[in-house]
Design a protein that fits this description.
The protein is an alpha/beta fold. It folds into two domains: 201 residues, Alanine racemase (TIM Barrel, Alpha-Beta Barrel); 123 residues, Lyase, Ornithine Decarboxylase, Chain A, domain 1, CATH 2.40.37.10. The protein is built from eleven helices and 19 strands. Strands 2-10-9-8-7-6-5-4-3 form a nine-stranded parallel beta sheet. It binds pyridoxal-5'-phosphate (PLP).
């Protein structure tokens, strides 16, 4: 029996990058965020496909992730590291020509002493209070940051266009960086969609590339197809699955499919509005999600297919996420290593 298959459409990722690129002026660069192994879809393959399409800058969370991207895209691209510079990062940064986004005055001072011939960027915290130099600290080292390849910050509320914090962070970023002769970046996917005030010199979308909200117009990127391994009839009053949480109210046909929460199909999807698709026909999940198995009510569909889909153009990562009480980012990065992976295009 073949394993569940995760199909990743690299052409759709390229189209999404192009569509996001078209949201900003031609003078604004559109980079690509490929952290967490390209949101779980393979940073190397994603970066290679986007590089072919013209992307020149990539962002990862950690230096180790940057190595995989460097190997995939060759020497010309810029690869930035969000986490800044951790103790063991000097060697990979030098060897693979990675660009840390320094996040404290002491990192900046040390870098200028020990690594002065290597490029760096600076990350400012403009109000999210997660990572980056505090405004007062940045103001102190602004002069030393003038050779930065990029000065960036990150919006906390860009998914909510009318949230007051967007404007506040924009104003903070401007106050700190206006007049500097450095390239600037503030926008991820959400900020890219907020409009040109947020674009500066570079937008750096992540989730929108992979088909996720808030980029509503994204092309779907992932399909998950799961083999049906058994079908059974259950009588009225019989239960299905752990804790007997679902009980048949009518004579029912139940298909058991070979994927579960160990494949990122989290337990919260059980007894929710998540469907398993038999072609164009949606079938409800019944009972609890097991580690390696899911049970589906296929009573109404006639012929049971050999495979059923949980992610496809009908049910996107965000629909799945909403039903399970999470976000598309978490669904994507949880899919895991057990799938057979097929890549389209690239
Ligand atoms: C993850 C991340 C991005 C990309 O965000 P999306 O919402 O996925 O577009 C951009 N910048 C920073 C600092 C990030 O951490």
């Amino acid at each position: 029996m073949t394993a569940a298959t995760l199909t990743i459409d690299l052409n759709a990722i390229v189209k999404n990058w192009q569509a996001l690129d078209a949201k900003s002026a031609s003078s604004v660069e559109t980079a690509a965020v490929v952290k967490a192994d390209g949101y779980g879809l393979d940073a190397g393959r994603v970066a290679a496909a986007l590089s072919k399409a013209g992307a020149r800058s990539f962002f990862v969370a950690l230096a180790e992730e940057g190595i995989a991207v460097r190997k995939a895209v060759g020497n010309d691209a810029d690869i930035y590291i969000f986490s800044g510079m951790m103790l063991t990062d000097a060697e990979p940064i030098k060897q693979y020509n990675l660009i840390p986004l320094l996040n404290s005055p002491s990192q900046l001072v040390k870098y200028r002493m020990g690594m002065s011939e290597y490029p760096f960027g600076v990350q400012i915290d403009s109000g999210m209070n997660r990572l980056g130099m505090e405004p007062a600290d940045f103001a102190q080292v602004r002069e030393k940051a003038k050779n930065a390849k990029l000065v960036m910050s990150h919006l906390a509320c860009a998914d909510t266009p009318d949230h007051a914090q967007n404007q506040q962070q924009l104003q903070c970023f401007r106050n700190l960086t206006d007049g500097m002769k450095v390239r600037r970046s503030l926008a991820a996917t959400g900020g890219t969609l907020l409009g040109k005030d947020y674009h500066f010199d570079m937008c750096r979308p992540g989730v929108g590339l992979y088909g996720g909200e808030p980029f509503e117009a994204a092309n779907p990127v992932v399909t998950v197809s799961i083999p049906v391994i058994q079908t059974r009839d259950v009588e009225v009053g019989e239960s299905v699955g752990y804790a007997a949480s679902w009980v048949a109210q009518r004579p029912s046909k139940i298909a058991t499919i070979a994927a579960g929460y160990a494949d990122g199909l989290i337990r919260a999807m059980g007894n929710s509005q998540v469907f398993i698709w038999a072609g164009n026909k949606p079938c409800p999940i019944v009972g609890r999600v097991s580690m390696d198995l899911l049970t589906v009510d296929v009573t109404d569909i006639g012929q049971v297919p050999t495979h059923m889909e949980i992610l496809n153009s009908h049910q996107t990562v965000d629909l799945l996420a909403d039903a399970a009480g999470t976000i598309g980012y978490e669904i994507l990065t949880s899919l895991g290593a057990r799938y057979k992976r097929d890549y389209i295009g690239g």
